[in-house]
Amino acid sequence: IEKNHDLLCADCKDIRTTFWIMIFASVHFVLSHLPNFNSISAVSLAAAVMSLSYSTIAWGASVKKGVQPDVDYTFRASTSSGKIFNFMNALGDVAFAYAGHNVVLEIQATIPSTPEKPSKIPMWRGVVVAYIVVAICYFPVAFGCYYIFGNNVDDNILMSLEKPIWLIVMANAFVVVHVIGSYQIFAMPVFDMLETFLVKKMMFDPSFKLRFITRTLYVALTMFVAICIPFFGGLLGFFGGFAFAPTTYYLPCIMWLILKKPKKYGLSWSINWFCIVIGVMLTIIAPIGGLRTIIISAKGYKFFS
């Protein structure tokens, strides 16, 4: 939103990032009160279409722009420690991009399932299609845009593009819709967890009032955190490793080994243990890299500015 404001109204007075975050959060103060995944299906579909659209615009516009004359493909950091920490943060970014299996389980729980027609069949097809779409969206952006801009590429590639203005404005609008949908999809399991805890453990009555207060407070909390730490790249790396790596990369493997008990040292056993080791390492090192990136970015940042 802020980028579109700057492109369309270059002579206008700058608006603080804090206000843009509050504007974004205001949408979620409304959407967060939709009751379940089925009720946000239209939002989810719009987000998926927007993701494919703006990623195509990003790499297409970058290729059209051509390789920049001062392109540099070396590491951004000049020290060995900086290179290592940036690599850690990059792993967290990848983990974040390909995470979300906790949401997948929540979605599968809404699909009718019988012994004759188990929900895992259509769910598996959906997951395969989803990963293909994600690959189509992200790989051209990752390879193509790095080839064009080198290590000067921005965390958000659209920030590196300025012309044609109408196309970049449209792509940024698509990003807004996508992020709005993504927020709701990732927040829905959190809402369910919080409300279940309050009802079953804290003995609150399940009601609209409880849902309204819980979800409003959650959105307000995330808005406050975003205002305090508006560092996109660092947060992706931190939460990619800390929050999403366990539920995506090794807890499912542990569950599989416990339930299926595959032959020790067999193919299935070995693959799952490999994923567990890699996942645990990712959970440890990615948040370290992300936290360092946040600390470096925060050096010149004034809170609530």
UniProtKB/TrEMBL annotation:
Name of the protein in its database record: Amino acid transporter transmembrane domain-containing protein
Presence of keyword Kinase: no
Transmembrane feature ranges: 17-34, 40-61, 127-149, 165-191, 212-232, 238-259, 271-295
Record-linked InterPro entries: AA_transpt_TM
Domain named Amino acid transporter transmembrane: residues: 9-289
GO BP annotation list: amino acid transport
Highest taxon of source: Eukaryota
Location(s) in or outside the cell: Membrane
GO cellular component, as recorded: membrane
Species for this entry: Eutrema salsugineum (Saltwater cress)
Signal peptide: none
Alphabetized UniProt keyword annotations: Amino-acid transport, Membrane, Transmembrane, Transmembrane helix, Transport
